[in-house]
From TrEMBL:
The lineage of its organism: Bacteria, Pseudomonadati, Bacteroidota, Cytophagia, Cytophagales. Its main location: cytoplasm. Homodimer. This is Nucleoid-associated protein IC229_08135. The keyword Cytoplasm applies. It comes from the Bacteria.
Length: 109
């Protein structure tokens, strides 16, 4: 592979990566805590889209527990969306560059 071809491929990778990053908002994941009593949905941009709380949890006495469950659900959703976002970006740039040992594009996300 000549150097000019490689630069052309890099420009295409950058373009596809930009397009894929712009569509990360469509990649979603939901995390649950408290056996499904609290659910949080996030997108590939790591924005919280929705929080669902079972009505039996909404009691003044349980405020601290509810806060802990919300944090746990958000953390789970964020952890679960990370591999989906990486896969989304990988698919967007698949086949553009040869398998070069040591070339890691993870930092572009």
């Amino acid at each position: 592979m000549d150097i000019m071809n490689m630069f052309g491929k890099m420009k295409e990778v950058q373009s596809r990566m930009k397009d894929a990053q712009e569509t990360l908002s469509t990649v979603t994941e939901t995390g649950e805590s408290g056996a499904g009593l609290v659910k949080v949905t996030v997108n590939g941009l790591k924005n919280v889209l929705k929080i669902e709380i079972d009505s039996e949890l909404i009691k003044p006495d349980d405020r601290e527990m509810l806060q802990d469950l919300i944090v746990a659900a958000i953390n789970k959703a964020m952890a679960n969306v990370e591999p989906k976002a990486r896969e989304h970006l990988r698919q967007a740039t698949e086949g553009l560059l040869p398998n070069i040992p040591g070339l890691n594009l993870d930092g572009l996300m």
